[in-house]
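Students often ask why we bother encoding 3D structure as a string. The short answer is that it lets us treat folding as translation between two languages. Here is a chain of 525 residues written in the first language.
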Amino acid sequence: MAADPKPEEISHPPMDQLQGLEYCIDSNPSWGEAIGLGFQHYILALGTAVMIPSFLVPLMGGNHGDKVRVVQTLLFVEGINTLLQTLFGTRLPTVIGGSYAFMVPIISIIHDPSLMRIPDDHLRFLSTMRAVQGALIVSSSIQIILGYSQLWAICSRFFSPLGMVPVIALVGFGLFDRGFPVAGQCVEIGFPMLILFVICSQYLKNFQTKQVPILERFALLLSITVIWAYAHLLTASGAYKHRPEITQKNCRTDQAYLISSAPWIKIPYPLQWGAPTFDAGHCFGMMAAVFVSLIESTGAYKAASRLASATPPPAHVLSRGIGWQGIGILLDGLFGTMTGSTVSVENIGLLGSTRVGSRRVIQISAGFMIFFSILGKFGALFASIPFPIFAAVYCVLFGLVASVGLSFLQFTNMNSMRNLFITGVAFFLGLSVPEYFREYTTKAYHGPAHTRAGWFNDYLNTIFFSSPTVALIVAVFLDNTLDYKESARDRGMPWWVKFRTFKGDSRNEEFYTLPFNLDRFFPPS
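And here it is in the second language, the structure alphabet:
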């Protein structure tokens, strides 16, 4: 008769750092490999950098030339913000990109009656851009104050591994409408892209050239090159000639009008659209988006630390990162990027897919962003990749980030009824409430919050449109009010507490110390 299995053979011991990564946060691949991986992160960041202006600029009355300038500016500031964050912020390998959280207040500004009345389209575009810039400049103060005053570090003391699970998981799962619904808009290129990316990154990951798993490392570049060429072939052969306009827009490789509109060389500069204008109502609405960006980034930083094989960032490091992110939103407002900044979730997923969590790779990708945003024609060539190709990759990468959130459950007791209740309710409401707000807005052309105070409507609609924000409100409230004193161990606090302070764990110094000996001036708490 076979002996009963031992407990250690059934369960897996919890791990502070994720195992199985080839390069962690401060170990670097060879320069050639690092440049290739950096370029891959740049290509991935293009998806959001092009999608947001492509949607917003036409609503503002802008033309193709305006759209190209906004894309270039967004990429340029993205590169600067990524360098600042990886050098002086959390120091995690995170790309700081454009954020969808700012859509609600920006669309509200676009539909402001005083701006809608401007008859000339180009003048309306410039006036709207300046109004958005003013709102971003003022509202960036929220993250700057919360970050540098260490107030966010104090708030983060109420977070436990249990409370963070729904927040981090919904940073990925909450973006489900950016995945297959967009890939399915041109299923003949979206679906092959999804299949090819999974095959290269997972099934062929052991294929090596000079001891480098080339297909796993560069699955994204290889898949995009093959499917982009295939999409170009379909376009050139006239496959979409008599198809509906929406199909042509999603599938054709010549519908973005970026290359023809882009200048050869153009350096974005502050106040290039003119002096920003300030309106109290616009600023209040935008503050909600800045708050949402702060919560989404908090979850994203925790996911990035895991996929970079680092320890969770201590409270003051997290707060420092939020402060620098506020500076990033201030730069967005000064340059006129059309949206605010947050951590790019897809680029965090790519850390896991390539198994390379190196900080240097992300800094190289920031260099590519700045370089190609100045050389307009070359940048526009890559930026004309059809959106369904990016969306197919998001299906994998957003899912990967979400599963990192679920991995924090290993530090909690999931045999506790209390924990099951909190996790389930926070997850469900985190998905259900934003879906209600989305559906209501689609039918009624305004959010459920619809009073005479426009700024109040924007504030509520923005907060409840965000899955991680709803999850954080629900999970943190329940976690800190339901039997919290007796359940510290169930919540995972004994494991979490040593990472709260910089000196709590010896590895924190290795991962999060500032460069150029700057910790002398900003001593860690």
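Translate back mentally: The beta strands are 96-98, 341-343. Keep this in mind for the problem set.
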